[in-house]
Amino acid sequence: MNTGPQNVFRALADPTRRQILIYLTKESLAVADIADRFDITRTAINKHLAILEEGNLIKREVSGRERRSTLNPEPLRSAFEWLGYFESFWDARLSDLQREISKEMEKTKESDQ
User: Fold this and answer.
1) What is the mean pLDDT of residues 41-63?
2) Which side of the chain, N or C, has fewer Cβ within a 10 Å radius?
3) What region, left, alpha or beta, does residue 2 occupy, with left being phi > 0 and alpha being psi -120 to 50 degrees?
4) pLDDT digits over 31-47, tens only?
5) What CA dihedral angle connects 73, 74, 75 and 78, to 10 degrees?
6) Residue 113 pLDDT > 80, yes or no?
7) Do 16 and 48 contact (CB within 8 A), yes or no?
8) Smallest Cα–Cα separation from 45: which of 71, 73, 14?
9) What is the pLDDT of residues 86-110, one digit of tens each?
10) How many whole angstroms separate alpha carbon 88 and alpha carbon 76?
11) For residue 58, what are the contacts with CB-CB under 8 A and spacing of at least 6?
12) Which residues on neighbouring strands pair with residue 61, listed in sequence order?
C-alpha cells in the first residue's frame, strides 16, 4: 500500500473525513457509530473510511459483527514534515514583507517631518 503524503492529503481533503478523524482521536468506532454522527448514508461513510484506510490514517478491525475503525496518526507525520518545509518559506517571505513595511513607514515618517 502506498502511504506517501499524496494519499494522506487525499484523505484529508474532505471535511467529512477530517471530522471522522477527530472523532477517532477519542475512541475506536463502528461504522454505525460514525454514520449516526453525520447526515449521510452508511455506504457514503464506508467510502470515506476506505479512503482514510488507503491513506493509512485508520485501521479497521472486525470485532464480533462490527467493523471498528481506529486512528493511526503516524502517516500525518509525513504530511506535517512536508508542510514544515513551507513554514520556513513563509517565515522568510513574511520577514521580507515586514522589513519592507518598516522601510516604507520610516520613509513616510521622514517625509511627514
Assistant:
1) 95
2) C
3) beta
4) 999 999 999 999 999 99
5) 120
6) no
7) yes
8) 14
9) 888 887 888 888 888 888 888 787 7
10) 19
11) 20, 21, 24, 49, 52, 69, 70, 71, 72
12) 68
Q: How far apart are CA 44 and CA 41, in angstroms?
A: 5
Residue that is written with C-alpha cell 513563509 in the block: 90
Q: Does the pLDDT at position 1 exceed 50?
A: no
Which letter does DSSP use for residue 13 in this model?
Answer: T
Q: Which three cell numbers stand for residue 53?
A: 484506510
Identity (one letter) of the amino acid at 55? Answer: G
Contact 11, 25 (CB under 8 A): no
DSSP string, 16-77: HHHHHHHHHTT--EEHHHHHTTSSS-HHHHHHHHHHHHHTTSEEEEEETTEEEEEE--HHHH
End-to-end Cα distance, the chain: 67
